[in-house]
Amino acid sequence: xxxxxxxxxxxxxxxxxxxxxxxxxxxxxxxxxxxxxxxxxxxxxxxxxxxxxxxxxxxxxxxxxxxxxxxxxxxxxxxxxxxxxxxxxxxxxxxxxxxxxxxxxxxxxxxxxxxxxxxxxxxxxxxxxxxxxxxxxxxxxxxxxxxxxxxxxxxxxxxxxxxxxxxxxxxxxxxxxxxxxxxxxxxxxxxxxxxxxxxxxxxxxxxxxxxxxxxxxxxxxxxxxxxxxxxxxxxxxxxxxxxxxxxxxxxxxxxxxxxxxxxxxxxxxxxxxxxxxxxxxxxxxxxxxxxxxxxxxxxxxxxxxxxxxxxxxxxxxxxxxxxxxxxxxxxxxxxxxxxxxxxxxxxxxxxxxxxxxxxxxxxxxxxxxxxxxxxxxxxxxxxxxxxxxxxxxxxxxxxxxxxxxxxxxxxxxxxxxxxxxxxxxxxxxxxxxxxxxxxxxxxxxxxxxxxxxxxxxxxxxxxxxxxxxxxxxxxx
Length: 476
Known about the structure:
12 helices; three-stranded antiparallel β-sheet
C-alpha cells in the first residue's frame, strides 16, 4: 500500500518479492478504489482480504509505504496506530501481519528497500554477524531494572541467544559497573554487526535512554552490510508521528542502521514488556521456560516443545508473538499494546539466527526423502517442477517450508526438480529436550553494594515507587 510517488522506487522490491514466490498486489492511494484516508484504505484492504483475486489467497502480509503524510495512521487518543487497517473481525487483533516503510521521499525509502533485499538474499560480504546479538537491560531509577529488565534479558540469553544456539551474545545487565561504558560498547557492537538487538527500559522518540543510543548515533554508525532487527521494549521509540523517531531513523539510514525496528508509538510498561518477551509468568530475575506461556523469544526460536502453529519467525509475526503473551495476561492494557507496538520494516522478512545447512538450487531428486524430526526452512518458497505424490503431511505454509512429520517419507516423482530459489536453508529440530539453565548469574560484591545503597534510599524515602503488582510506566 503506497503513495504513487514511490512507484518507480518500489519496482525492484516488488520484482524481488515475486521472484521469491510471493503474489504481490499493489494499491496506490490515488486509485479511486483505494483513496488516501484511513477509512478508504481500510475498506480496500478488508475487501482484498475477504475477496482476493481468483487463484490468490487472502493477504498474509501488508506493507505500508510512506510516512503519515503519505499513508495516514489512525489516532488512538495520545498515540497513532496502524492496527485498525488490519482488524477485520472486530476482535482488536490484526488479521494480517503488517509493517511500514516510513518515508517522505525516495531518498528515505531506497535504503530500506536495498537493506531488505540484501538481507533476504543473504548477499553480504560476511553474513556471520547475523549470529551475534546485543541484549540490554537499561537503567531504571526505581529499581525495576533488577528484576523486570534483568529477568527479560537473562531469559533471552539463557535459553536462546547463547553459544548452544550458535550465537554470540553481548549481554548488559543492571546495575552498570563503574567504568563499564555500556553506551559506547553497545554502539561498538552495533558497528561490528549484530543480527538482533534488544533493549528494555526507558526511551523517548529520540532513542534508548540509559545506556544511551539515539538518533544522532545512528547517523555515525559504520555497520555497512551488517543490518539486523532491533527491538525496543520501551516508551515512544517508534512514535512515528514526530519528525523522525528512532525506529524511522534506523531504517532510513543509508548503508547503516537496521533492517527492522519494533517499538512503541506510546509509553510501555514494565509488566507487559516483561511478558511480551518471556511469556505471562511471575516476574523474577531468572524466569524459566513454561510451554503453556510463550513469549516472543520462544515463538521466534521454537526449539523446545512448540508446535508449528506457535512459530513466529518473520518481523511482522514477532509483534503478534509478543502481544499474544500480553493478551494471555491479566493486563488491562491488551488493546493498548496491540495499538502501540509497530514494525518499521518488511513484515514478511524472516530473521536468521540458525546457521545455514547445505542447500542447492535445482537439485534433481530421484529418490524418496525420509525424515523423523527435522524441518527444513528456506528464505524463499520451495517448489517442485513436477508432481509430488499426495500426502496430507506435505505442507507449504507461510513459513515457506516443507514439514516432514515423524516417520514420514516425501515421495518425489523421478526426474522432478526440487528448487529453492535465492537459497538460504535452515535446519531446526522441534524435539529438543527442555534444558533449563544449569547456572545463574548473581551480582558481584560491588553490585551488591549498589543494590544495598538503592534499598537504603528507598527506606529513607528518597525514592517512591509503586508495588510491582501495580502499573509501572517506562517513560523516561
